[in-house]
Structure formats: C-alpha cells, structure tokens
C-alpha cells in the first residue's frame, strides 16, 4: 500500500514537472517566434542566450525541442498510471536521462561558449535534474517490487 502511494506521488511529481517545463519552453518559444525580448530578471543574459547561434539545434529553436521533451514526459507520466508491463517506465527512464545529459550540455554551452546565463534555461535544467531524480526513484522502486515478487514466488 505504501509503495502504491509513493509511486502515485512520484507520478504526480513527473506530471507537475512536465507541466512547469512545458510552460517554460512555451514562453521561450513564443518569445522566439514573435521576436519579443525575454523578461530576464536578475540574470540579464537570457536575451543573449536566446539570440545566440547555439539557441538553434538541427534547424529548430531549443525551446521547441523543450516543448517536445516536456510533452513526451507528460504523456509518459500519465501513461505510468496504466503501464502494466513497464514500457512507459523504461521509455521515461531513457528520455529522462537524455534530458539530463542535454541540460548538462546546454549549461556548458552557456558557461563556456556564450558567457551568459538564461534564467529560464537554468529553471529548465533544474526541473530536468529533479525529474531525473524522480524517474530514478520510480525505476528503482519498480525494480525492488520485481525482486520482492520473485523472492516470494
């Protein structure tokens, strides 16, 4: 029973993080397509990051890739509720790891190539790292459930 409640809270966390990340990416994408300056707050480098050539990946703005990433996470998070065979969990794990590695790369680019920081990018990276932690918890708990079931049979 406790495991189900814990997993339910993990699923809720995945969905909530995906929604926050989606809102962040949608704001950045809207600013990109309307050519509007970002509201940077204390870190004034967000417009420099958004205007840099590094803000485009394979011909698309990184914010569009973020929309795709967080939408996938949202769909997979919702799919966890009915995922009996573990497919959604395994795909979520792979997508989460890919997202965390991408965030590390984008942080590196901001630090060493652009020389400016985007508050929205930092927020997305934070969300991605928290998401990776939650996904690891989900994955490890499901592995523990499988081991416990195999030991009792």
Could you characterize the architecture of this molecule?
The chain is an all-alpha fold and 153 residues long. 78% of the residues lie in helices and 3% in strands. It has helices at residues 2-34, 46-51, 62-79, 87-114, 119-152; strands spanning 56-57, 60-61. Strands 1-2 form a two-stranded antiparallel ribbon. It is elongated and about 45 Å long.
How would you summarize what this structure contains?
The protein is mainly alpha-helical and 153 residues long. It is built from five helices and two strands, in the order H-H-E-E-H-H-H.
List keywords for this structure.
single chain, 153 residues, mainly alpha, two-stranded antiparallel sheet, 5 helices
Shape: elongated
Query: How many strand segments?
Result: 2
Assembly classification? single chain
Proportion of residues in extended strands: under 5%
What is the percent of helical residues? over 70%
The tally of helices reads 5
**Could you give the order of strands across the largest sheet?**
1-2
Low-confidence stretches: none
Q: Radius of gyration, Cα only, in angstroms?
A: 18 Å
Q: Secondary-structure element sequence?
A: HHEEHHH
Category from helices, strands and their pairing: mainly alpha
**N-to-C span:** 19 Å
For the largest beta-sheet, the strand count, sense and barrel status come to: 2 strands, antiparallel
**Global mean pLDDT:** 88
